[in-house]
Write a structure and sequence with these properties.
Number of strands of chain A: 20
CATH superfamily of the largest domain in chain A: Dipeptide-binding Protein, Domain 3
Oligomer: heterodimer
Strand order of the largest sheet of chain A: 8-9-10-1-11
Shape of chain B: globular
Radius of gyration of chain A: 23 Å
Largest sheet of chain A: 5 strands, mixed
CATH topology of the largest domain in chain A: Dipeptide-binding Protein, domain 3
Largest sheet of chain B: 2 strands, antiparallel
Radius of gyration of chain B: 24 Å
Order of helices and strands of chain B: HHHHEEHHHHHHHHH
Number of helices of chain A: 17
Strand order of the largest sheet of chain B: 1-2
Structural class of chain B: mainly alpha
Helix content of chain A: 25-40%
Helix content of chain B: over 70%
Structural class of chain A: alpha+beta
Distance between the termini of chain A: 35 Å
Number of domains of chain A: 2
């Protein structure tokens, strides 16, 4: 997950109960309307428009509308056909076949075939930062015939079928890339895909225009004539543009305090669901190389000293769910609900620190720590302020340090010159892809951003993660992750703070923009404007 | 012919002074940027949220960051010697193209703001000088003090709230109607509509400065002997004000305006952010955050050139305003 997404997601969202009351959920039998322009807002301009050799958060809002994937997913993350119409997985989980949709054309008029799929998956495996890991077990990708592709794996990869969305594993045209290096190919900034919208122009710093694809395979979709994506970084300017009716939908970046006010606008509405494909969380990560934080009692004391409920209700204005372990409660297929919890108990925290032999000095200070919150979101800075105050009550003197994103990444992951940090992370669509990287001792890799920054190492956890990564039985896999969650909560390499969702502000005339797991990162063919 | 010679001479002198200046600016910038923690690969890898040692190494080699710093500098300078500002792997585009896309917006914004602030500032300054010490002077003085003190971004936001959100007269941001494909007069009108608020917010502080500067210079020039002579000659008050007082009072104002041009480039970052304008300032800001040094060095170079060109133009303007300047050289 990118800085962009991470920042945006910090402006958290609400519970499912609220969502069911949301007007879009009244499935009235009204037919979609053809025509119109959707003006969409993105806060931070992505560097590329296809997630092939690089991934960046905001890219997905545009990418999937032009370049599609093999599959798409419903709200419960069940795979649904996109470019693949049918698929099979062998019982041992080592052989996958995908039947491809026939009669699909690229935007330049050429036929879409199995060769394109082979090329795309191979490039993802070779050059995509996440694809390198996701497709690591894929030994070969073969085109059996122009509409049938076979994947042979060296080891099972139970998460693979979830990783084939357009925004995660885009299928690009082999003939467009030719023999050029995909890393520097111009298709990344002027993409040719099979999607419902054709790329028209990108004026950097201003906007991207996508036009309706008249030859789209899923006629009569897309319903929209045009999508204009505008890049507005300033949050006050975003709110103004929404209120002035210059944008129809924001993909995030509207401050929580403004969300409350916008709810009073008769034309606008707020959707605060999290995207099931993303599952972002906020956590406090401890550096095990710090002499104090190494001690289990100290980490436990900190967990008892911080009132997570206060953070959620006061700083995040009640948006987001409590997070008790390493896996987001939104990941229903993996989340273990009966994890031990650290109650807010200052006396107990003090007692633990006393027992650890960390007595208070004349000023009531036991020891000093520096906290580095992830730069950017206001909510993170405020949470850091609160942590400083909360820990002062148990005799830990916290200094806050702020810096820009590049400095933060270098400090925490390369120089490892930090004590503890408040950061955001995406659990993504499967814990092996999105969670394992943070706790697996083999992913302690100084220099690599958002790896195991705690320097946490527990052979039992490694074993569980490695077993879960290749376990094809759903029940057994769930049990492995349940054990993993229990162990991590006990060891406390990090302390979960809350889940983050992305409140989307939209004009009530915009319909059906959130129909699958990818949320606003879907291909958008079904979106229409009515009224 | 004489004008051409003057122009050529001024340009030649500027060139002599500026080449070493430019080289110095580049070297200092290049070395300063090396001090910033983290590099472009860190940012790209951080943005993706997923990276491995291999993907980082691949990124570093794309950016040329795997080479030694002297080698990187040498590559940059040799590119520059071929009038090539380099390539940005982050944007997947040449730096020339990136800057070319943005330069127009920033220049339009700055020139409009400068023009607006000079016209209004000088006019108000003349009014203040004319009624020195009386109520129009006092009211305008308080106003100018206010606009001088208030930050530009706040004024920008307030203008948006009033003229875009409440009244709906002008757009909240952007540099033109997206996808309208306008030409000629409609295009100009469209640009002015989009530029009105940002140019005003950028101009307000300078209006205040020029008004007060004009007031002071007018009063000073008005007390000179030649004004008394002109009055004694029986010239009309209008002729005295415009031909004698204002013309002389303009010299310090043009000097300041030339200096402000560079300052406006800096102020443009804020205004471009508030009004979502695709300008150079925001590109520079993004380049710093992304540690995309090729882009940043390119922008710094172009900005330095802009400032130098402005200085030459101011010199020429002053020579025209006050012929004594030429004879002194």
């Amino acid at each position: 997950m990118s800085l962009t997404r991470r920042q945006l997601l910090v402006y958290a969202g609400a519970t499912t109960t609220l969502l069911q009351l949301s007007p879009r959920f009244s499935f009235a039998d009204e037919p979609p309307v053809r025509g119109g322009t959707l003006r969409m807002h993105i806060a931070i301009e992505p560097p590329i428009l296809v997630n092939l050799t690089h991934t960046a958060g905001a890219t997905v809002y545009i990418a999937a509308k032009v370049t599609e994937g093999l599959l798409t997913y419903d709200l419960d993350l069940n795979p649904r056909p996109q470019l693949a119409t049918a698929w099979t997985v062998s019982d041992d989980g080592l052989e996958y076949t995908f039947s491809l949709r026939e009669g699909v054309k690229w935007h330049d008029g050429q036929d879409f075939t199995a060769d394109d799929v082979v090329f795309s998956l191979q490039t993802l495996k070779a050059s995509n930062p996440r694809g390198r890991a996701t497709f690591a077990n894929v030994a070969s990708v073969t085109a059996i015939n122009p509409h049938l592709v076979q994947l042979t794996l060296s080891k099972p990869a139970p998460y693979l079928l979830k990783a084939l969305a357009a925004c995660e594993s885009p299928i690009v045209a082999r003939h467009v890339y030719g023999d050029a290096r995909p890393e520097t190919h111009a298709n990344a900034t002027a993409p040719i895909g099979t999607g419902p919208f054709v790329f028209k122009e990108w004026v950097r710093g201003s906007h991207v225009i996508l036009e309706r694809n008249p030859n789209y395979w899923d006629a009569p979709k897309p319903y929209l004539d045009r999508v204009i994506v505008r890049f507005i970084g300033d949050s006050a300017a975003t709110v103004a543009a929404l209120e002035a009716g210059e944008i129809d939908i924001s993909t995030g970046g509207v401050p929580l305090s403004d969300i409350e006010r916008i709810k009073g606008n008769p034309r606008l509405s707020v959707d605060d669901r999290g995207e099931p494909y993303v599952n972002s969380i906020t956590r406090i990560e401890f550096n095990f190389d710090n002499a104090y934080l190494q001690k289990h009692e100290v980490r436990t004391a900190i967990a008892h000293a911080i009132n997570l409920d206060f953070i959620r209700k006061t700083i995040f204005l009640g948006y987001g769910k409590p997070l008790y372990g390493p896996i987001s409660p939104d990941m229903k297929n993996f989340y273990s609900p009966d994890l031990p919890r650290y109650a807010f108990d200052v006396a107990k925290a003090n007692q633990l620190l006393d027992e650890a032999g960390l007595a208070r000095d004349g000023n009531g200070v036991r020891f000093k720590l520096t906290l580095d919150p992830l730069p950017g979101p206001e909510t993170y800075r405020r949470t850091a302020d609160y942590i400083k105050q909360a820990l002062a009550k148990v005799g830990i003197l916290v200094t806050l340090r702020s810096q820009d994103f590049a400095s933060y990444v270098k400090r925490v992951y390369t120089d490892r010159d930090f004590d503890f940090t408040l950061n955001g992370m995406s659990n993504l669509f499967d814990p092996t892809v999105g969670v394992q990287r943070l706790y697996w001792s083999k992913n302690f890799q100084p220099g690599v951003p958002f790896s195991n920054g705690a320097h946490y190492s527990n052979p039992k956890v490694d074993e569980l993660l490695e077993a879960a990564a290749v376990e094809t039985d759903v029940q057994k896999r769930f049990a492995l992750f349940a054990q993993f969650q229990k162990q991590v909560v006990e060891d406390l390499p990090d302390l979960g703070v809350l889940t983050l969702v992305n409140p989307v502000v939209y004009d009530k005339r915009v319909k059906d923009f959130f129909v699958g797991a990818e949320g606003l990162g879907s291909n958008g063919a079904q979106i229409y404007i009515k009224g | 012919m004489k004008i051409l010679l003057t122009l050529g001479g001024a340009l030649w002198r500027a060139l002599l002074h500026t080449l070493p200046t430019l080289l110095g600016i580049l070297l200092i910038n290049f070395l300063l940027l090396q001090l910033a923690p983290g590099d472009a690969a860190d940012v790209m890898a951080g943005e993706s949220g997923s990276a491995t040692q291999e993907s980082l190494a691949a990124l570093r080699s794309q950016f040329g960051l795997d080479q030694s710093i002297p080698m990187q500098l040498w590559h940059y300078l040799s590119n520059l010697a071929h009038f090539n500002l380099g390539y940005s792997p982050r944007y997947g585009a040449s730096v020339q193209a990136l800057i070319g896309q943005r330069l127009g917006t920033t220049l339009t914004l700055m020139l409009l703001a400068l023009l607006f602030s000079l016209l209004l500032g000088i006019a108000l300054g003349m009014l203040m000088a004319r009624w020195q010490g009386r109520w129009p002077d006092r009211v305008l003085y308080v106003c100018s003090q206010f606009f001088y003190s208030v930050p530009g971004f706040w004024i920008g936001l307030m203008l948006i709230v009033v003229f875009s959100v409440k009244l709906g007269w002008l757009p909240t941001g952007g540099s033109g109607t997206i996808g309208a494909d306008l030409h000629g007069w409609p295009a100009l009108f469209d640009t002015l509509r989009f530029m009105a608020l940002p140019a005003s917010s950028l101009a307000l502080i300078y209006i205040a400065i020029y008004a007060r500067l004009t007031r002071a210079s007018m009063l000073e020039a008005g007390a000179q002997d030649y004004v008394r002579t002109a009055e004694a000659k029986g010239l009309s008050p209008w002729a005295i004000t415009f031909k004698h007082v204002l013309r002389n009072a303009l010299l310090p104002i043009t000097t300041m305006a030339g200096l402000h041009f560079g300052g406006m480039l800096g102020g443009a970052v804020v205004i471009e952010t508030v009004f979502s304008l695709p300008g150079l300032g925001r590109l520079a800001y993004d380049a710093v955050m992304a540690r995309d040094y090729n882009v940043l060095l390119g922008i710094l170079l172009i900005s330095s050139l802009l400032v130098i060109i402005t200085n030459v133009l101011v010199d020429l303007l002053q020579t025209w305003l006050d012929p004594r300047i030429r004879s002194r050289r």
